[in-house]
Amino acid sequence: MQFDDGVTRIRAGDVTANDVAVTLADELTDRELLGVLDGDERFLAGLRQFGRHGYNHAPIVAGQVERLGIPGIRFTDGPRGIVMGRSTSFPVAIARGATWDPDLEREIGRAIGAEGRAQGANLFGGVCVNLLRHPAWGRSQETYGEDPVHLGTMGAALTEGVRSHLMACVKHYALNSMENSRFQVDVTVDDDVLHEVYLPHFRRVIEAGADAVMSGYNSVNGTWCGDHPLLLTGILRDEWGFDGFVMSDFIFGHRDPVGSVAAGLDLEMPFRQQRAVALPGALDRGTLRRSDALRAARRLIAAQLRWATSVAEEPPSIDVVASAPHRALARRAATQSMVLLKNDRFGDRPILPIDPDHLRQLAVIGPLADRRNQGDEGSSRVRPPHTVTILDGLRAAFESSGVSVDADPGDDLARAATLARTSDVAVVVVGYTPADEGEALLSMDRATMALLPSPAGSRLVSRAGSRLLSLRTRFRPSSGGDRERLTLHPHDEALVAVVAAANPRTVVVVVAGGAVLMEAWRHDVPAIVMAWYPGMEGGHALADVLTGAVEPGGRLPVAVPTDPAHLPHFDHDARSIRYDRWWGQRRLDRDRRSAAFPIGFGLGYTTFEFDELTVTDVDIESLTARATVVVRNTGERPGGAVVQMYASGDAGPQRPTRQLLGFGRVTLDPGAHAVVDVDLSLRPLTRRDGASTGWSIVEAAYQLEASRWSGDPDAAVTPLVLQR
After folding, report:
1. Distance CA 297, CA 295 (A)
2. pLDDT, average across residues 104-127
3. The domain that contains 156 carries what CATH number?
């Protein structure tokens, strides 16, 4: 049978994808069978391609079998957009997490999927839902935030959107939230904490239809994620019922090429590397069971068949890539992601929005104002055809109204202060770049380097290489990886101080991939906007927000503390670390410490009230419920509200005092009201029963809070009764 024949029969309803996968896998020769289980390109040839054209310039192919017409996995990375070609660069994932808008994320997923398929891919590897445990994590920009329900909801939405065109892969499974030591660190976690805290968001994305799972680099409780039978088979398949395939993270994604097949790792990516060397002899000797190899091949082929029969036969036109509608979507996403953290009054009105008709001169100051700063330049880098810098966007918005827009890089504090003093409004743009945070490419130890094919993986070369990289890391200037600071750079803080002292109408715009501690200056400036890494249309989007053309729609997907001591332990070079159930907002709540800005926080240009909260359809079996609340726009202009539903109550010392159960968005005109329904997940209120797969409700006198942010004093409140 040929692959296309199988597709035709599946479409006709004669057979299932699994039936055809069994038939095709059984026709594979031993060489073809083992070739399905890793990338198609030889290691050195693949690296040369990356070096010549850039990472993932074309689909990375694995398991193509021309004799049978099997197309193979054709991978493209993310999550900012399609890494291939000159694709649309959307705001980074944490910015999109700040939208709290699954419908928008689903729309972005459809656009990403269309651009990927138009460029020849069939798998998108950019659904990242790792829990952001600490803001020092270098790749915090690639995930949605710190809350499991929020992570799962947003990841599920992206998955559903992408799957209109591509298979979707969720990553990095599991407990992967340290960058510098990602190849070496062992994360120790108790079974109940693992299931209650660090896995529910992965499960939610699996339930949304994810076709693939990418394992993490790290080890969990002493076993590498790529070789982990409990994670890859016991939980993922036996407990959750996942029927897709598991692939390794790239190059260093597993340590046991033979044992990983039995453990449930189906595909080694991206090249012919460890398995190409080890599996042929293991199959001959019987240490690799052919049944295990066949099982993996069937999963991979079945996923391709399901994809081929679920999407349109013809891919979208290449013209869809970075098209005008997709750029408009990127701009809309950026405006909805920007979080207004502070907006004091100047005279009889708030600093923001700024009316260009009442302005003569605008100062734009700071090292990042005119930088095309898209965020990390590692595997998530997208190369759009153009980027609108913040300065570009502000000039386009203000100069058309006759406003003089004067820029200064801020390297000379006295000069910056003079410009600010002579301007009507000063906008200071500060924050981070890929030099400060992102993927760590230089953190390999000797054991990791030994995974490379010879000669790079030889004992002598791996020892020397790891020492060289260690020295480079120790004495290098910043070059990505985990953050070395949680505050702004000292010069940036000094710049903010002198500009704010010179001009009482100062707006600070922070560009970053996660929480930034602002205690040295936040009380001294009247307006603060968290812009994240806002994507290719970010400059226009910020101008839309600052002028009031669009409401600042973002709400924080993380808590911003006042002191690093209020955060969990984080060791950049850890070989082992224990993860517990306390981080972010729930750790602050446990320790009775106030956040600078709590999770969910964000201001707008209008005001809202929530009342008449009710709870219906409580189902203990499915662990679902529904809440209804009346939302009123009590301000003078249109705006959007994010309704956040938190369960609070004293459920014991090992349970958070407040947990998110669901959320929803609504946009209203001045004086208007709407009845908003929010679907709730009751999973956060359950307990894992020992080492079994059972769950039970944690009993407590809960109340449900319809809030603007966690701990909102004006939340609408009603009892939440959980009974069978």
Report:
1. 6
2. 98
3. 3.20.20.300
